[in-house]
Amino acid sequence: MSSPGSVDVCIVNYRGADDVREAVRTLGEWPHGTLWIVDNSEDAAQADALASIAGAQLLVPQKNLGFGRGCNLAFERSQADFFLLLNPDARIEAADLLRLADAMRADARLAALSPRIWWNPERSFLLPAAFPQTPWVTIAQTLAPGARGLTMKSSARYLARQRAMAASHATTPVDFIAGAVLLLRRGAVQEAGGLFDPAYFMFYEDSDLSLRLRRRGWRLGVTGAADAVHEYRHKAFKGALMMQAREVYFRKQYPGFWRATGGLRRLDAFVRQVPLAEWFDVLPRPCRTLDDFNEQSGSARIEAFSPSPLTMPAIFRPGAPAAFTREEWALLEPAGYAARIAGRTRWAWFERSATE
Questions:
Q1: What is the pLDDT of residues 76-86, one digit of tens each?
Q2: What is the DSSP string of 131-142?
Q3: 49-77 pLDDT, tens per residue?
Q4: Could you give the CA distance from residue 331 to residue 334 in angstroms, rounded to a whole number?
Q5: Cα–Cα dist 258/266, whole Å
Q6: SS (H, E, C) 94-123
């Protein structure tokens, strides 16, 4: 394994100091660059807790800058060749970060690289690569509730590709990257106009960066040679922030599409709810516990699941399907989920109600 050169690490905190401390503990001692922590919490207690992290450079802005501008604050002060974005609820060990840096150094035109990202600490489920954010995908998602068969076939192809990517230790080219655990090449980012557009408070800033990098001829990739964990949680409050960022993104990056759809309003007018009973085997009652789910589903063996009734993106098992463990179930936020169950011809739909 070669020397990674200078690799800085950036964590942006918002009232999650305990998560940040755990992320730093998992990384361990990092002598190859600076650990930057940006505290957006507007809370002196959070800043005090983060200030005690040995070896970290703490930046405390006067207000909550949002994710993208928080990352920019550290990036502007960094001089490292490579810059790792690390969510507070994501975990990567030093050896895996070294492998990421090796893969980046091996390809001079690679601008951004993600490791294989597991959903849970037990590493039984994987998160897919970033979902494309393009006009065609947006149109397809809008019309999907009226095309169950085509949507399910697209979902199956998507899962097959994700499994193939996860099984390979090579770098797989992708068109879009996600910022949860992401290694960036400083020179490429600077050539593309800088890190994140400050117009985004949260969400879509990584899609915007993906387009800018590719339009400058840089490549993006995902590699199974390195691993990380990101305990993604489906939170309903994120929806409004995502919709705001979506408008900024399409207005900027696809202005013709933006104008033709009346600022997406004409397209959104076609949005329909997925008819759950027609698409899925719907479990008859909300599931408050794993025992509830097992009783109603027959201890179903899960291949993949998604909070989206369109079934993409899915959190998926790279190996053999298995019943939910109690640890896996505990990570599910209260919400509705589509689940791909082994041995069934249709996906199931279940409601995860509030925890017991």
A1: 999 999 999 99
A2: PP--HHHHHHHH
A3: 999 999 999 999 999 999 999 999 999 99
A4: 10
A5: 10
A6: HHHHHHHHHHHHCCCCEEEEEEEEECCCCC
